[in-house]
Amino acid sequence: MSEISYVVKYDLNPTVEEAYKVLRANVQFCESSRKIRTIAITSYSPGEGKSTTSINLGISMAKAGMRVLYVDADIRKPMPFKYFMSSNLKGLTNYILGQAKLEEIINKTDISGFNFITCGIKTNNPVELITSDKFSNLIRELEKLYDTVIIDTPPLGSVIDAAVIAAQVDGTIIVIETNAVKCQNALRMKEQLVKANANILGAVLNKISKSEYKNYYGSYDYYNSRKKYIKMWSRLIKNLKSLKRGEHD
Hints:
- By secondary structure, the protein is α/β, with parallel strands linked by helices.
- The protein folds into two domains: 5-218, P-loop containing nucleotide triphosphate hydrolases (Rossmann fold), CATH 3.40.50.300; 221-249.
- The protein is built from ten helices and eight strands.
- Strands 1-4-5-3-6-2-7-8 form an eight-stranded mixed β-sheet, with helices on both faces.
- Strand 7 (171-177), helix 8 (183-195) and strand 8 (200-206) form a beta-alpha-beta unit.
- The longest helix has 27 residues, at 222-248.
- The radius of gyration is 22 Å and the shape is globular.
- The termini are far apart.
- 33% of the residues are buried.
- GO terms for molecular function: ATP binding; non-membrane spanning protein tyrosine kinase activity.
């Protein structure tokens, strides 16, 4: 493992951070007889937020005391290092091609318990790499080292890679951008995962507006209404005290 500790760009407001805690809890609720250690995350099209969801979910799990590894498996279009200020160019493809050892591609971050593997060099045969025995063996090896391995996969509406990876992991999460994906496309994506015998854990509705978020969860808003309820109870207590004084008079 690299001795350098890379800085992760992580700055969420309390509401968003709470949403990832809920997602983390829901993943844990999906566990029955078998613990979910490896998770593939995909979407229908690019730009829906699957990488952001993958990383933030991983960080949320790490903050809860888990050992988490994020793997960028979008070999066709590697994610730019916008989240990780990494100088290590060796990654997943380098390992599968025999150009790097496992300890050379795992990178530490400034967040305790959260590590990552970048995509590595771009190749012309991504499907051959992810269907290889070396990729399958890598997943099994990482299961021994981490509590959870989150694999960021390419959009399923464009290529088949996500379904291939989903067939090899414990669970799959679908990220859907609000008002951006047609229902029939979302259903087509689900059908493709079912054909691959993927264990679909659920879907994340992403990029939802603040007003829609409040409507979805109802009128109860812990962060914004706490002061309002404190004031309400203060007035109620004062009124009760006034009534008691009136009775004594």
